[in-house]
Amino acid sequence: MNETRDVVVVGAGPVGLMLACELRLAGVDVLVLERLAEMDLTVKAGAVNVPTAQALSRHGLLPELQEQHDASMARMATFLRGMGAEPRPAGERLVPGHFAGIQLDGAAIDLDDPAFQDAGPAAAAWFVSQQGIEIVLARRALELGVEIRRGVEVTGFDDDGVGVTLDCADRTVRAGWLVGCDGGRSIVRKIAGFDFPGLDPEITGRQALVEMTGAEAVAPGWHATPTGIYVYGPMPGRFLTVELDGPPADRTAPITAQELEQSFRTVTGVEVRISNVLSATRFTDNTRQVPDYRKGRVLLAGDAAHVHSPFGGQGLNLGIGDAVNLGWKLAAVVRGWAPTDLLDTYTAERHPVGAWVLDWTRAQVALMRTDPRSRALRAITTELLSTRDAATAIFKKISGVLHRYDLGGTHPLTGAITPDLELANGTRIGDHFRTGQAVLFDFTDSPAVRAPAAAHPDRVQVITTKPAQPHTVSAILVRPDGIVAWATDTSDTTGLPEALTRWFGPGN
After folding, report:
1. pTM score > 0.90 for this model?
2. Whether the Cβ atoms of residue 253 and residue 162 lie closer than 8 Å to each other
3. pLDDT for 205-234, tens place per residue?
């Protein structure tokens, strides 16, 4: 059986699904192949950052995201009450985040900092699990007409037109492009022969959701002990342990209740009995990154392109960011109005972000070590993070509000995620990306601003309105991924024609 598609995406996790949604929104024929027959229920990421929430909001998914957030908050409240603690009052914002297991104090964070302003309502919908994101994106993909085939394993491919061989030798899919979103052990990365340099692991982490008894004496939250690091909660039966005595002998071996009990006791010092393992995984601090996210017609996104420890909760967000950045660019190449050179900007923009995350996680492992020098450094870091300036600076990193690309230009917004301003017509900036097009916002009703966009009617939509509240910016050109490509605070349109041509072709 043979068939032809524009793009084949391998992996139906959040990254693969997000990429498929972006491609399909732009009219690309995309097929998603997933090795697993059902969604992976292993407990993983538990929260998203601001750029991830904004990306889903631009798809019109904020109500579903908020629903997932509210359900998670309700489960956490149940857990805290069960531990004899009272959850925060309704309406009081809970600020998430930790660095190396040092929990940030929400009261110490300056949420009036300019970096947190204009993020829009998506910033309040952050407490969403990886499975929750996958559920939301799977629904969206099906609404857009994406075909997702589960229980199908890729066994090989060539990169001459990309002929993808499936688990049966007589099943082949021909595609213009192949994207590996198939995780840290990516078969796509291995078959394509991407280099994957980095550092070997030195820890063994275990994360599980279990039914157990004897945990009444375990304090919720993150804690350092003489034998490692652990976190208990924020859901009943959920815990994570970190032991720094080397990587596991066999990371792929089944995880037993006995192994989890032993690790829990070793790190916490509390005797527990685990009667049922609902979900469990091992992880390490193996940190690696491919030097280039593309080889010919094969591209990588998410953990297929970079692996690291989960500390700080950056992995899911990093992968979603890859998908959002790549999606519209690959669609432009597939549809023929952009040269393949546009795909070079994918690695150029995303590789530095991935490299930062790897360093961010390595630094946290250094602070988790149990030797006297590391523990002295941890004590000093804990003291620093209790201050307003340090807590705010770290939370700005964790929340992703400082995220930007170096696109040149002189305006401070260029390369940053667009502010999600409320507009005078009752909409927000983020409401205008449902079609997958770029958007030029003309806030001063200026023909000079609108004129250059007339050559790109099918690629750039123009919105003429004013911000609901006074703002310094008078016009902004925003790429489909929410990144500001050009902006001005005056009537000067210098650089706008060049930005339009650079990102959306020469036009008609």
Report:
1. yes
2. no
3. 999 999 999 988 898 889 999 999 999 988
Angle, helices 388-399 vs 372-385, to 10°: value is: 100
Assigned token pair, 442: 């003309």
- Higher pLDDT pick, 344 / 90: 344
Q: What is the largest CA-CA distance in the chain?
A: 72
Task: Give the model confidence (pLDDT) of 19-50 as tens digits.
Answer: 999 999 999 999 999 999 888 777 777 789 99
- Name residues whose C-beta falls within 8 Å of residue 16's C-beta, 6 or more positions apart in sequence: 9, 10, 32, 34, 179, 181, 182, 301, 302, 323
Integer Cα distance of 203 and 309 in angstroms: 9
Rounded CA separation 360/357 (Å): 5
Q: Are 267 and 30 in contact (CB under 8 A)?
A: no
| Alpha carbons 26 and 24: distance in angstroms, whole number | 5
Can you tell me which residue has the tokens 């068939």? 3
Type and span of the H or E element at 233: none
Q: Which of 496, 432, 420, 499 is nearest to 462 (CA)?
A: 432
Report d(CA 163, CA 363) in Å as an integer.
Answer: 41
Token reading at 252: 């792929």
The burial class, CB within 10 Å (0-12 / 13-18 / 19+), for 63 is: exposed
Check residue 89 and give its pLDDT.
54
Closest CA to 241 of 254, 249, 255, 199: 255
| DSSP state at residue 494 | T
Query: In whole angstroms, what is the distance from residue 250 CA to residue 207 CA?
Result: 16
pLDDT higher than threshold 50 for residue 101: yes
Identify the residue whose tokens are 């995303």. Answer: 350
**What contacts 79, CB < 8 A, 6 or more positions away?**
220, 233, 234, 235, 236
